[in-house]
């Protein structure tokens, strides 16, 4: 079935949404700049002492599990409870879920606050759903992405959707799964090279938060962010030579594609 989403309305951002990111040091700068490239505003702030004032100013919150420490755990959990109290649109990125018990415990604590969006790559979300997963660290495995495995994950996410009715789940990979209690959407843009530089999933999480902060619904924000980012990658592949060049070009396209008819290239369907 055709997706009931008007992708031509995703961009431009009219309100320069301010996105607070509590995230990892590895991709932090890429995320901040990616937000600026699409017309949003980033603030990477994780000191709970400023949350009461900061939350009055922000449009959305991104919580990224990537690089853990006791202090980061405190920041993530404090921000998560502020977001609940202030009903702040929130994206939780389960980076590396499955790697360790402590990471899993923190991830579950964040999901249990019923955030707007919970994302991860297919291997991370298979771990989260208790399914066998071949993920390596923070990277997905193609072994987890066959048709049967995708359908198995969709079923598991729909079941979990019953426990978290306010949350929409995104599992990214060669195909991307968007699942909540009411809908299952499969997205199919992008190129393999998007799995070959660090931060692609993190950047998608930041863009989703920006689109939520702009006022888009969760399904529109997710499908819009994933499709837009992946179409930037498709264009970058045509213009680049080598992975470092491809990374640069993908980021570059974030500011360019929105003035093109990118939305005519969106591939996906509602199951
Ligand atoms: N093989 C692929 N083909 C097309 N798009 C891909 C592929 N792998 C990843 N992507 C895209 O790259 C982005 C990051 O996905 P992924 O690599 O699964 O996340 P992470 O970086 O968190 O592991 C998503 O938008 C996803 O659709
Ligand atoms: C390499 C690495 N290690 C901890 S976080 C991180 C970046 C993960 O980024 P992404 O989830 O977008 O691949
Ligand atoms: Mg990731």
Question: Can you walk me through this structure?
Answer:
By secondary structure, the chain is of the alpha/beta class. The chain is built from nine helices and nine strands. A nine-stranded mixed sheet has the order 2-1-3-4-5-6-7-8-9, with helices on both faces. The mean pLDDT is 98. It binds adenosine-5'-diphosphate (ADP), 4-methyl-5-hydroxyethylthiazole phosphate and magnesium ion. This is Hydroxyethylthiazole kinase. Its EC number is 2.7.1.50. Belongs to the Thz kinase family.
Total number of domains: 1
Structural class, by secondary structure, is alpha/beta
Question: What bound compounds does this protein have?
Answer: adenosine-5'-diphosphate, 4-methyl-5-hydroxyethylthiazole phosphate, magnesium ion
What coarse outline follows from CA principal-axis ratios?
globular
Order of helices and strands: EHEHEHEHEHHEEEHHHE
CATH topology type:
UDP-N-acetylmuramoyl-L-alanine:D-glutamate ligase
Alpha carbon gap, first and last residue: 6 Å
Total DSSP helices: 9
Looking at CATH, the homologous superfamily is Ribokinase
Helix content: 40-55%
Going by CATH, the architecture would be 3-Layer(aba) Sandwich
Largest sheet: 9 strands, mixed
- Average pLDDT works out at 98
Indicate the proportion of strand residues.
5-15%
GO molecular function: ATP binding; hydroxyethylthiazole kinase activity; magnesium ion binding
Catalytic activity: 5-(2-hydroxyethyl)-4-methylthiazole + ATP = 4-methyl-5-(2-phosphooxyethyl)-thiazole + ADP + H(+)
Pathway: Cofactor biosynthesis; thiamine diphosphate biosynthesis; 4-methyl-5-(2-phosphoethyl)-thiazole from 5-(2-hydroxyethyl)-4-methylthiazole: step 1/1
EC number: 2.7.1.50
């Amino acid at each position: 079935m055709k997706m009931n989403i008007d992708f031509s309305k995703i961009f431009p951002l009219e309100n320069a949404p301010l996105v607070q990111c509590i995230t990892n040091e590895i991709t932090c700068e890429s995320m901040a700049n990616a937000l600026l490239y699409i017309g949003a505003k980033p603030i990477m702030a994780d000191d709970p002492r400023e949350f009461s004032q900061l939350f009055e100013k922000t449009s959305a919150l991104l919580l990224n599990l990537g690089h853990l420490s006791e202090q980061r755990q405190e920041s993530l959990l404090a921000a998560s409870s502020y977001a609940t109290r202030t009903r702040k649109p929130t994206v939780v990125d389960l980076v590396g879920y499955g790697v360790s018990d402590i990471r899993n415990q923190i991830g579950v604590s964040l999901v249990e606050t019923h955030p707007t969006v919970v994302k991860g790559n297919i291997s991370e979300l298979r771990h989260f759903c208790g399914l066998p997963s071949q993920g390596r660290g923070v990277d997905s495995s193609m072994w987890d992405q066959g048709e049967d495995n995708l359908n198995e994950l969709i079923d598991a996410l729909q079941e979990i959707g019953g426990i978290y009715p306010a949350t929409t789940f995104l599992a990214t990979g060669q195909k991307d799964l968007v699942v909540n209690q009411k809908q299952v959407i499969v997205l199919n843009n992008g190129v393999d090279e998007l799995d070959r530089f660090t931060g692609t999933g993190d950047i998608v999480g930041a863009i989703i938060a920006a689109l939520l902060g702009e006022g888009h619904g969760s399904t529109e924000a997710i499908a819009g962010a994933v499709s837009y980012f992946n179409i930037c990658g498709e264009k970058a592949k045509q213009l680049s030579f080598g992975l470092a060049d491809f990374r640069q070009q993908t980021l570059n396209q974030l500011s360019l594609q929105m003035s093109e008819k990118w939305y005519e290239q969106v591939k996906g369907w509602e199951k």
